[in-house]
């Protein structure tokens, strides 16, 4: 078994680490406080090739593997979860559907500028009354005179309403199958489509510098060729997109936990009580040991899933294990890291306060902890 990263993986990891340290970390507190979208960081990440890391160069990407992509997400999340989710959602939810299921013309039109980071794209699966139960989407698209006429609402869609968002790919009911079950398809909806509107940004507890909106479709019309892949394949397509997304969220969770560990480690060495640094108290040093032990554990699980994916193997169970474990681990680690900060951890000037708020969504997005267990129980034959 070879645990060494390749030279290319190491190079991407250190590029992401330097970028996160020099460019992202210094801005994170202000962006969170002002709920300001990181346009300037997106432009820099585009220059570095991060917005299209795992896509082939012929489609505007950097041609890197999933392991490199996951390492980059982890390093950026270590500095700021909002910037990391903006990149990760763009790659794994926005651009990947075009790469996996798009026609050559759709790849040229959408994937190339997305991978180059020239525009962002959303993936609209969730609805106000269909989240975990995603197969129950109510948005309808009817084919009339060569156009899809769309009506419905999507909730919580990342990257859907920024100044550089080009559109959203949405999941809609497009008819009934011969057996009476609902036919679900994915449809590409560009931003300028009449009848397609975006709400104001939600006011969120965490990921406050990221863009999340409700989308409405009132007789919104797009050409018939905006169907993504074959008609009726929408359910299968979004399940496979979510499988890959779980590696992203696991990487994001681990990165956030690493950032919280960094803060707690530094604080424990600096803060004195009873005449010595608090790191000298076993109660504190054991917390730090337990935190790093769990981080190392989660990293191995997540990188294993990414490695399996890069080899074209079935990585679904590994990704689900990694997402579940990393989401819950980030909760424990960030909580303990804040505890080490005492009362100062409760103050907004300290990064750990933001990290504590940013953590919670890691246990909800792209499959809640409960849904991960449902998926895993099924995969385990239960
Ligand atoms: C900031 C943010 C960004 C997001 N970005 C996107 C995006 O870009 N695109 C997108 O499509 N969606 C996005 N989402 C939606 C996200 O994926 C959903 O919120 C998530 O899947 C949960 O769905 P829900 O919120 O409807 O909760 P519900 O499904 O209503 O769940 C409520 C509770 O019931 C539990 N539950 C539900 N079903 C079961 C079951 N079978 N067994 C046990 N427990 C169950 C859940 O685990 C949870 O605890 C985003 C959400 C947020 C908050």
Provide an overview of this structure.
The strands form 3 sheets. The protein has a 4-stranded mixed beta sheet, covered by helices on one side. Strands 2-3-7-6 form a 4-stranded antiparallel beta sheet, with helices on one face. The protein is globular. The model has no long low-confidence stretch (mean pLDDT 97). Helices cover 51% and strands 17% of the residues. The protein has 382 residues and is α+β, with helices and mostly antiparallel strands. The chain folds into 3 domains: 112 residues, Butyryl-Coa Dehydrogenase, subunit A, domain 1 (Orthogonal Bundle), CATH 1.10.540; 111 residues, Butyryl-CoA Dehydrogenase, subunit A, domain 2 (Beta Barrel), CATH 2.40.110.10; 144 residues, Butyryl-CoA Dehydrogenase, subunit A, domain 3 (Up-down Bundle), CATH 1.20.140. It has 10 helices and 10 strands. It binds flavin-adenine dinucleotide. The site of flavin-adenine dinucleotide has 23 residues, from α4, β1, β3 and α10.
Q: In DSSP terms, counting alpha (H) and pi (I) runs of 4 or more, how many helices? A: 10
Strand order of the largest sheet: 1-4-5-8
Poorly predicted spans = none
- Principal-axis shape equals globular
- How many domain units? 3
The overall strand count is 10
CATH class membership of the largest domain = Mainly Alpha
From the 3D structure, determine the CATH topology of the largest domain.
Butyryl-CoA Dehydrogenase, subunit A, domain 3
User: Order of helices and strands, N to C?
Assistant: HHHHHEEEEEEEEHEEHHHH
**Fourth-tier CATH superfamily name of the largest domain:** Butyryl-CoA Dehydrogenase, subunit A, domain 3
Which hetero ligands occur in this complex? flavin-adenine dinucleotide
Helix content: 40-55%
Oligomer: single chain
What is the architecture of the largest domain at the second tier of CATH?
Up-down Bundle
Termini distance? 31 Å
Could you say which structural class the secondary elements and strand pairing correspond to? alpha+beta
Classify the beta-strand content into a percent band: 15-25%
Arithmetic mean of pLDDT: 97
The largest β sheet comes out as: 4 strands, mixed
């Amino acid at each position: 078994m070879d645990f060494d990263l390749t030279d290319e993986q190491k190079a991407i990891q250190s590029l992401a680490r330097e970028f996160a340290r020099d460019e992202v970390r210094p801005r994170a507190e202000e962006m969170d406080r002002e709920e300001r979208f990181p346009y300037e960081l997106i432009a820099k990440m585009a220059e570095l090739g991060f917005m299209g890391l795992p896509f082939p160069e012929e489609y505007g990407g950097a041609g890197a593997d999933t392991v490199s992509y996951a390492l980059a997400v982890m390093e950026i999340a270590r500095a700021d979860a909002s910037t990391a989710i903006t990149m990760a959602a763009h790659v794994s939810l926005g651009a990947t559907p075009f790469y996996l299921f798009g026609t050559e013309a759709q790849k040229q039109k959408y994937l190339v500028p997305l991978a180059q980071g020239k525009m962002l794209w959303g993936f609209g699966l969730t609805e106000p009354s269909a989240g975990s139960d995603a197969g129950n989407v109510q948005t309808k698209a009817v084919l009339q005179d060569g156009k899809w006429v769309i009506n419905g609402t999507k909730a919580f869609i990342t990257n859907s309403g920024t100044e550089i968002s080009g559109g959203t790919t949405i999941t809609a009911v497009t008819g009934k199958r011969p057996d009476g079950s609902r036919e679900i398809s994915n449809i590409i909806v560009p931003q300028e489509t009449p009848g397609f509107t975006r709400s104001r940004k939600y006011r969120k507890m965490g990921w406050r510098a990221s863009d999340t909106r409700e989308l409405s479709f009132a007789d919104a019309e797009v050409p018939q060729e905006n169907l993504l892949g074959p008609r009726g394949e929408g359910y299968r397509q979004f399940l496979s997109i979510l499988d890959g997304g779980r590696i992203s969220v696991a990487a994001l969770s681990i990165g956030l936990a690493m950032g919280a560990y960094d803060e707690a480690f530094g604080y424990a060495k600096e803060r004195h009580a009873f005449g010595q640094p608090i790191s000298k108290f076993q109660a504190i040093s054991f917390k730090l040991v337990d935190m790093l032990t769990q981080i190392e554990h989660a990293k191995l699980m997540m990188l294993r899933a990414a490695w399996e994916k890069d080899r074209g193997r079935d990585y679904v169970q590994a990704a689900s294990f990694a997402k579940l474990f990393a989401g819950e681990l980030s909760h424990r680690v960030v909580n303990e890291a804040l505890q080490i900060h005492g009362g100062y951890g409760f103050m907004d000037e300290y990064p750990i306060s933001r990290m504590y708020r940013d953590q919670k969504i890691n246990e909800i997005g792209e499959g809640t902890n409960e849904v991960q267990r449902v998926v895993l129980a099924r995969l385990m034959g239960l």
